[in-house]
C-alpha cells in the first residue's frame, strides 16, 4: 500500500470531510460508538482554518469549546482538561485540544491530511438517477499529494466550514476584477496586527469592512497599534444603520468575554481613534498608484474615499457547494444554509446570537445519510458557536448508528447574548402560535432560559 492510498475496511466507513472542531467531534462520536470512519482534511494539520487566526482569543471559555465525546476519549488516555473557565486563543485550542484528540489511537489511523474532496456522488449514478439510490454507497473523489483517488462511504458528514471562502467587500456580493487585482492589499480574515502582520499596517491608513466579532477583534488591535504609532489611521465601514447595534449585550451577555468585546469597541469608537461610516455600501474599488480608492453609497450619495493603504475584509463567508453538484443537497435560497435552519438564523429577521438546539432532523438532506454540519450548515449566516456543531454531530452520529432516541434528544445549553432584536413579530412580545413540544434538559434562548418541556416555534426565542 502506497502512502497515498487510503486504508480499506471490511465495513464501509462514514466519511467526514474536514478535520476542524466539528469534524473532529464527529470522529470522536463515531469512535466512541465503534463505528468505522475516515476523516479527510484538505490542509496539512488539524483545524487549519483556526491556525490562520491562532493569535485571536476566543470569547467562549473551555467549558463550551470541548465536545463531550472527545473529552471522554481524551480523558481515557490520561489527558488533563484545561480549566473550564479559562478562555483560550486559537493556538491554545490547537495545541491543547485538537492535536491531542487527533493523535489518539482511535482517530489518528483514519485521519488523512492534504486530502481535498473535489467531488461527491453515489456509486455509478449521477444526481438525476433515483432507482436504488439510497442503497448505493457514496463515492468521494479525493486529491491527495497530487494524485486522484476514490473513497467509498456509507454516509457523509460535510464539516468543511466556510472560513476559506470569504465574501467580497462589495455590498452586492460579487467578485470583480478590480477586487481580485488588489489581493495583496486586502486581508480576508483576522490579521495579526500586533504580531507578524504589524509592518503591513503600522503608520498606514487602514479600512476595516464588517460588523461582526472578526471586525471588532481587528479594530481593537488596530486601536492598540495606533496608540503605539499615531500616524496609523483607522476607518470602519459597516452596513448596519447604527454602530451601537454592533455593541451587543455587553454586561448582559452570559459569555463575559463576548460582552466585553462590545464594551471595548464602544470605548474605542467614542475615543475618536476610529472614523466610522454607517450605513456604507461599497460599490467599487479602484487603484490610484499605490493607494486604493473606495467608492460607496453613504447617506444616499456617492462617497469617494481616497488614499487607503490596506483593507481588512470581515464581511463573512459563504459555503463551498461546488463539489456537491452530484448529490441531492438543498440549501436556503438566501442564506445557503440547511433549509430547516434558515428561519432560526436569518439575520434579516433577528439578530439573536443563540438558536434553538437542533440536530439530525433539521440537518437532513434529500440525499439519505448525507449531512452538512458546523458553520457550513449556517451558510452565510453569522453567530455560529462550536458547541452548536458538537450537538449537531452527536445527533447525526446517533442517527447513523440507529440510536434514534438519542438523535431526537436535545443535549445542549447555549449562553445568552443579552440581545434579542427582532425585525418582525417576536415571540418575546406576541402570543405563541403553532406550538409544539420539544424535550430538553435545559435550553438557553435569546429571551430567557427555560427548562423542559419547552414551547418551541421557529424563531430565536424558542
TrEMBL record:
Source domain of life is Bacteria
Q: Where are the transmembrane segments?
A: none
The cross-references to InterPro entries, in alphabetical order and at most eight, read:
Auxin_biosynth/cation_transpt, FAD/NAD-bd_sf
Q: Which Pfam families match?
A: Pyr_redox_3
Keywords for this entry? Answer: Oxidoreductase
What's the name of the protein?
Thioredoxin reductase
Source taxonomy: Bacteria, Bacillati, Bacillota, Bacilli, Bacillales
